[in-house]
Amino acid sequence: MSAPAAVVFDVDGTLADTERDGHRVAFNRAFAAHGVEVFWDIEHYGHLLAVTGGRRRIVADLAAREECSGEAADEAALEEIAARVHRTKTRLFADEVRRGAIGARPGVRGLVADLVAHGTRIAVATTGTRAWAEPLVEHVLGVGTAEVAVYGDDVTRLKPDPQAYDLVLARLGLAPGEVVAVEDSAPGLAAARAAGLATVVVTNGYTREQDFAGAALLREEFDRPAPLAAAELGALVDRSAASVARRRHPGGPAGPCSRERTGKGVSWSGEGAAPS
Ligand code: XBP
Ligand code: MG
């Protein structure tokens, strides 16, 4: 059983549990710093995560609040406020990362060490901003471990669009069938699948109830019940190569099925977005 040629890791929620006690707190501090009377509680932020990209998330929430209060949203004004708040949030969160406040999810470092020992190349594809994501990737994986890293600043379309994954594959010079993605969320899974990658989903508190139909493997933790290892990811690549072969030669022997699960998707619809 071979290891994959490369594994591409998402950052937020995957390499580290960043959202609830990291990004959310930084967004709230930034709102306060700019005199914007908005506070994102834990539950509401969970809904907002359906909007990827912090600046877009702010615009979406502010627009929904204006709509709820019966005002017509001034899009240009909202974009400007969101850009200012997001710049502050990025600085605050980057400071947190640099002081080592955000650690790796349990089992991530062991998996990466096993992959590296098997000659698998490591890459990163995130919708997050480079200013904080790069130091976090270096802190979690070690400087130089990720051979290729694509950040939100490097693409014009964020996840669930596959652009970040397409760019990673181009920079690695590999075909999708040789590579496995590791994600934590439904938008991340959609992005990786649209780029043609077999995708492992390791859920967290915010994403556990999302719909992960189409995931090659679904787990709640990296390290439990048994540590996720390179061989298991290699088997997924072997499987996806076999399923490509089956599509080309229908009627051949049936291979192993992907584990699929359906559940309640988290979709942001402005609910709970009434002015606080
Ligand atoms: C992560 C995001 C990001 C972070 C916040 O999604 O959508 O917006 O929540 O980071 P994924 P920024 O894990 O699917 O890449 O504020 O830098 O956008
Ligand atoms: Mg994520």
Provide structural commentary.
- The protein is an alpha/beta fold and 276 residues long.
- Helices cover 44% and strands 10% of the residues.
- A 6-stranded parallel sheet has the order 3-2-1-4-5-6, sandwiched between helices.
- The longest helix is centred in the N-terminal third of the chain and has 24 residues.
- Xylulose-1,5-bisphosphate binds next to helix 1 and helix 8.
Shape: globular
Portion of residues within helices = 40-55%
Radius of gyration: 19 Å
Element string (H = helix, E = strand): EHHHHHEHEHEHEEH
Structural class given helices, strands, pairing?
Answer: alpha/beta
- Please mark out the parts with pLDDT under 50 across 5 or more consecutive residues, or reply none: 248-276
Secondary-structure topology with pairs:
Layout: E1 6-9, H1 19-33, H2 42-48, H3 54-68, H4 75-98, H5 108-117, E2 121-125, H6 130-141, E3 146-150, H7 163-172, E4 179-183, H8 186-194, E5 198-202, E6 217-219, H9 230-248
Parallel strand pairs: 1-2, 1-4, 2-3, 4-5, 5-6
Helix pairs in contact: 1-4, 3-4, 4-6
Bound molecules: xylulose-1,5-bisphosphate and magnesium ion.
Xylulose-1,5-bisphosphate binds at residues 10-13, 19, 23, 52-54, 90, 126-129, 152, 159, 185, 187-188.
In a nutshell, what does this entry contain?
This protein has 276 residues and is of the alpha/beta class. It contains 9 helices and 6 strands, in the order E-H-H-H-H-H-E-H-E-H-E-H-E-E-H. The C terminus is likely disordered.
Looking at this protein, list some descriptive labels.
276 residues; alpha/beta; binds magnesium ion; six-stranded parallel sheet
